[in-house]
Amino acid sequence: MENGAETTLEESNGTCPPWALRDYAVLADGERGALVDPEGRIVWLCAPRWHSDALFSSLIGGTGYFSVEPTDRWHVWGGAYEEGTLIWVDRWVTADCVIECRDALAMPASPDRLVLLRRMRVRKGEARLRMRLDPRPGFGAHRVRRPRLEDGVWTAEAEGLHLRLVGAPASSWDTEEGLRGEFRLREGEQHDLVLEVGTARGNSRIDAEELWRATEQAWGDAVPDCSGLVAPRDARHAYAVLRGLTSSAGGMVAAATTSLPERANAGRNYDYRFAWLRDQCYAGLAVAAHGPHQLLESAVRFTAERILADGDGTRPAYTVTGDPVPDERALDLPGYPGGSDRVGNHAGRQFQLDTFGEALQLFTAAAHHDCLTKDAARAAMAAVDAVERNWHRDDAGLWELENRWWTHSRLCVVGGLQRIGAVFPGPDGRRCADLAETILAETRRRCLHPAGHWRRAADDDGPEAALLVTMARGCPAADDPSSPVTRAFIEEKLAQDGYLYRFGHPGRPLGEAEGAFLLCGFAMALATHRLGDRVGAFRWFERSRTACGPPGLLAEEYDVRQRQLRGNTPQAFVHALLLECAARLDGGSALPY
Fold first, then answer.
1. CB 62 within 8 A of CB 71
2. Across all residues in the chain, what is the average pLDDT?
């Protein structure tokens, strides 16, 4: 290894130029996530947990990153995940050589200690690679202290964090620019870098080979075989994404990032580094459609714990440890282009009735797989109690907008009550069935349009793609006259070029106010399949899954015209519905409904 690597203007300021969102890969171990750009720069990493301050925040205009990249600027980029994992392999081809960098967050993971693995290797020719480590804790507000080299290992401290880097003993640390160095590798050679960041000072031996073996084994144990599903590779990748976003505490974050814009300069920038119970239920139901795999147990446990603890006051979102989501605040950063620098999320204080309906669907699926625990059964009845006391209330709904009498929220709890009522015999089951019938009757009275389709809300005749989610879950039933009429109405009003928008914006054409919602496209596939149109369902499924970028990741929205992803990435509930489609569309769902 050599010192004296050249730097660009951006690198000398601790920042990296942005890429289109579709080009970023994500590394995740359940407790935190990192984003890697095509040049091998890790530009986003919060430590030690998902909702902690960022150590690398260049993604949103902050400072700090960790790069491994060819010194030869005349190269083309490629990359892929190792199947069934979030182990990412960057691949660069220059005029003379082929270089790879294998990246992963080591597993099994610890909540208070992350280990980032980077393995450089040359497949052809000889190569020079440049390494740069510039940690900036607190979203770039701080620098590390006391960097020093001891026995070939770099150590440093910052804001309650302790850092160790193994594999760069000949590099140099500059006060302003961090750690810099170069590697020369011949064909067939490889070299490991291991970065450890923890709340306590690390003193255990760091062995890259052992860490890689454990990580490969952990992914092999965590992600099941999906060869019997449609689109098996994408299905397995979706499962890996969901596993990577799910903490050992059970909570699954909605996405790995914050503040990535859903529409440029439109003010819609949110922090998704928290666990939404609805999203958790979507993931659990998707896994249950495939089989009783471990992520189903995690979803049931986390959801049950939250409902038992909070009852009627169950929040839509929590940290992955079950704590309240912090209020929103700005960081005084430029943000990703078109975005902002917002952290925290006001949705944590909302009331969203449909959360209870999705929880009841999840508990029913667990019962079918004989994994409904005693606590989950108690949580199910607590959810029924909450619905009984609150179904008349206006709520923020699936899209977390203003409080209204949303049709989707009512149909969601009706479907949940119908499902869970079949699980509990005797009075509890009859109570659920009677309550479902009462809510459905009132919802029909207030929300069923004379033309036969469901209104968006009691006071809104417009189309609403959220209704496809309840239809996919069997409410209303496929033989209910409103189901095909509503599906056709939504397609007529909200579809464009094979993609689906969530609702209309008065006076603005589709695509101008926001992108297509990928969740809605997959929900359309599921609803269409439930109505008996298998070919139509596959068309929606195939179109929606083409929206991914080269790493195969999906965000919340898709700009149909520019073919670009929008919003925080990767979006868990989109990958969940992709997985559910893959499990259901071939007719081989592990659930009997």
1. no
2. 95
CB neighbourhood size of 184 (10 A) = 14
* Burial label, 384 (beta-carbon count in 10 A; 0-12, 13-18, 19+): buried
Query: Helices marked H in 245-293 — which ranges?
Result: 277-290
Q: Which residues contact 42 (CB under 8 A, 6 or more apart)?
A: 27, 34, 35, 36, 56, 65, 66, 67, 103, 116
Estimate the crossing angle of helix 572-584 against helix 534-545, to 10 degrees: 150
The answer to whether residue 72 scores a pLDDT higher than 70 is yes
Half-sphere exposure (Cβ direction) of 138: Cα atoms closer than 13 Å: 9
3-state SS assignment for residue 447: helix
Angle formed at CA 299 by CA 478 and CA 551, multiple of 5 degrees:
85
Whether the Cβ atoms of residue 518 and residue 581 lie closer than 8 Å to each other: no
**Does the pTM of the predicted model rise above 0.90?**
yes
Specify the 3-state DSSP secondary structure of 124.
strand
Tokens 């992600």 appear where?
223
**Distance (Å, whole) CA 119 – CA 370:** 42
Report d(CA 523, CA 528) in Å as an integer.
Answer: 8
Could you tell me the sign of the dihedral formed by the alpha carbons of 270, 402, 254, 487, in that order?
negative
Residue corresponding to tokens 């280990």: 115
